[in-house]
């Protein structure tokens, strides 16, 4: 089964390490002008639907592509070749 997961927590962590900053979810929500609760749900990977505008703002803020924010994980085991 394939799952789409949020990578926002790792992005924020990398941002803080790279910039010697302490960007919080609350500050991020203010910076991108989005509701705190919406950003928090994405940060905690609790979203069912991903608002396009939110993803656009995050891509712009972190200067990244959408595949840095959302990642695809597969829980399927590779099939063995049977002869």
From TrEMBL:
Every HTH cro/C1-type domain range: 22-73
InterPro entries noted in UniProt: Cro/C1-type_HTH
Source organism, top-level taxon: Bacteria
This protein's name: Helix-turn-helix domain-containing protein
């Amino acid at each position: 089964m394939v799952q789409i997961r949020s990578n926002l927590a790792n992005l924020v962590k990398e941002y803080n390490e790279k910039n010697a900053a302490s960007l919080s979810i609350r500050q991020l929500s203010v910076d991108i002008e989005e509701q705190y609760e919406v950003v928090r749900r994405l940060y905690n990977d609790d979203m069912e639907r991903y608002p396009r505008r939110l993803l656009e703002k995050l891509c712009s803020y972190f200067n990244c592509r959408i595949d840095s924010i959302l990642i695809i994980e597969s829980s399927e085991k590779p099939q063995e070749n049977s002869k």
